């Protein structure tokens, strides 16, 4: 039964890496026509983590501004969503909990289902808030997208974290019931425990994504969702920017709607500004799309926004949110712009060296070079333990 309590995203902040690789550098290295990257997949550059950055430092950097603004008193749960996990047992969110100095009276857990994990975290958080509306849940989506060097996936890497504070009477976006959900057992993208880089069947992954779009929409309609024309914008999972365009055209086509370019651009363009320069941020990607939309759109107060979250393997969800009047006073547009602009541009050789870097597995003391200028850094791997420090 639908509840009258409004629950949703009260605050949102994202962080990205110290470094950036322009696609021109990748194209010069592998002889690809730059048009394929700039137009074909819609990417200009991708974020690259420093040697002392990972999903924990990115997650902490994304979440710190939320705790600074709202305090931690109401936060009793931290859900950390990632598919580039750093430990098979310990939740990355426990390190973030420590770096942010959150109270011990907190539950912390990590969630995984490829790029869909953050949406599961958001929905679970909404359930917790319905159970106790005085509580807020900190959802952190943090990922480093890594494919093999010289593989087709290499151009679709990236890294970022988005932190969402979920609560009652939210200041940004009320998340609506119902959701359309979809699961299919496909091997389009996966990462066995012994691999750092993901494996992917590129064309199969695009087909699987499009099938999930149809599946979630069908279920969304059956659950009594909104009509397609009611949405002011559509935030898709963006493994590369053009995938959102493929997905949206597919959704419109399969519903007998016009797919003229002006309509598609109106529905999508403002959601892609960050992804185009950050690249694939896996679990964070849909919410990076939301940040881009809210930071760039004219007033969306009272308007409905659609979300399509896709995680390979595959699980997907289509749901809607309503933008809360007055939301613009709470945005972090300037900080988001700075997070992108502050990145140092790498040449291809430095990027390649960072990509190849991994810790020895001998249990010794392995300090990391001090590269990040961010507040949180991975200082070492010592006795198989990750050592973080705050500046
Ligand atoms: N000028 C303009 N466009 C050009 C061009 C040029 N000179 N050369 C090629 N293109 C276009 C192609 O026509 C193509 O466009 P369409 O798809 O619209 O036809 C586009 O550029 C890409 O070209 P290819 O398909 O030939 O590229 P590719 O074989 O190198 O693979 C890819 C592209 C499959 C996306 C690959 O980068 C990849 O495997 N990426 C990782 C997987 C991925 O991101 N999958 C997305 C769905 S899965 C998901 O969403 C979960 C997740 O996060 C991974």
Question: What does it look like?
Answer:
The protein is an alpha+beta fold. The chain has a single domain (7-390), classed as Peroxisomal Thiolase, Chain A, domain 1, CATH 3.40.47.10. The chain is 34% helix and 26% strand. Strands 1, 4, 5, 6, 7, 8, 9, 12, 13 and 14 form a ten-stranded mixed β-sheet that branches. Helix 3 (55-70) packs across helix 4 (92-99) and helix 6 (202-222) crosses helix 7 (241-254). It is globular. It starts with 6 loop residues before the first strand and ends with a strand. The mean pLDDT is 97. The structure holds acetoacetyl-coenzyme A. Acetoacetyl-coenzyme A binds next to helix 2 and helix 6.
Please give the structural blueprint.
Elements: E1 7-16, E2 19-22, H1 23-30, H2 34-41, E3 45-48, H3 55-70, E4 75-81, H4 92-99, E5 107-111, H5 117-131, E6 136-145, E7 158-168, E8 173-175, E9 180-183, E10 189-190, E11 199-200, H6 202-222, E12 231-236, H7 241-254, H8 261-268, H9 273-278, H10 285-296, E13 304-311, E14 315-323, H11 333-341, E15 344-345, H12 348-356, E16 365-367, E17 376-382, E18 385-390
Parallel strand pairs: 2-15, 4-5, 4-6, 12-13
Antiparallel strand pairs: 1-7, 1-8, 2-3, 6-7, 8-14, 9-14, 10-11, 13-14, 16-17, 17-18
Helix pairs in contact: 3-4, 6-7
């Amino acid at each position: 039964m639908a509840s009258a309590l409004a629950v949703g995203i009260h605050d949102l902040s994202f962080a990205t890496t110290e470094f950036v690789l322009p696609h021109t550098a990748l194209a010069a290295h592998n002889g690809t026509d730059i048009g394929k990257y700039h137009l074909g997949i819609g990417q200009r550059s991708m974020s690259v983590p420093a040697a002392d950055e990972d999903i924990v430092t990115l997650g902490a950097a994304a979440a710190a501004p939320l705790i600074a603004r709202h305090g931690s008193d109401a936060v009793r749960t931290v859900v950390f969503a990632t598919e580039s996990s750093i430990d098979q047992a310990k939740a990355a969110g426990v390190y973030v909990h420590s770096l942010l100095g959150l109270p011990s009276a907190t539950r912390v857990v990590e969630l995984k289902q490829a790029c869909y994990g953050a949406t599961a975290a958001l929905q679970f958080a909404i359930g917790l808030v319905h159970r106790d509306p005085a509580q807020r849940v900190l959802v952190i989506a943090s990922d480093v997208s890594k494919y093999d060097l010289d593989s087709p996936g290499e151009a679709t890497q990236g890294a970022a974290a988005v932190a969402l504070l979920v609560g009652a009477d939210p200041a940004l976006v009320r998340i609506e019931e119902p959701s359309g959900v979809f699961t299919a057992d496909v091997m389009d993208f996966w990462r066995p425990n012994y691999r750092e880089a993901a494996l992917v069947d590129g064309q199969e992954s695009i087909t699987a994504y499009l099938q999930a779009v149809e599946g979630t929409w069908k279920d969304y309609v059956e659950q009594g969702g909104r009509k397609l024309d009611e949405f002011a914008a559509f935030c898709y999972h963006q493994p590369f920017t053009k995938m959102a365009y493929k997905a949206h055209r597919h959704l419109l086509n399969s519903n007998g709607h016009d797919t003229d370019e002006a309509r598609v651009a109106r529905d999508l363009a403002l959601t892609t500004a960050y992804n185009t320069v950050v690249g694939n941020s896996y679990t964070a990607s849909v919410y990076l799309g939301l940040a881009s939309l809210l930071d760039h759109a004219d007033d969306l107060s009272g308007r409905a926004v659609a979300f399509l979250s896709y995680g390979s393997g595959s699980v997907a969800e289509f749901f809607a949110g309503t933008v809360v009047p007055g939301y613009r006073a709470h945005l972090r547009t300037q900080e988001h712009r700075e997070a992108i602009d502050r990145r140092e541009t790498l040449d291809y050789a430095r990027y390649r060296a960072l990509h190849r870097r991994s810790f020895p597995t001998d249990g010794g003391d392995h300090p990391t070079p001090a590269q990040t200028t961010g507040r949180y850094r991975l200082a070492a791997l010592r006795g198989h333990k990750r050592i973080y420090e705050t500046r």
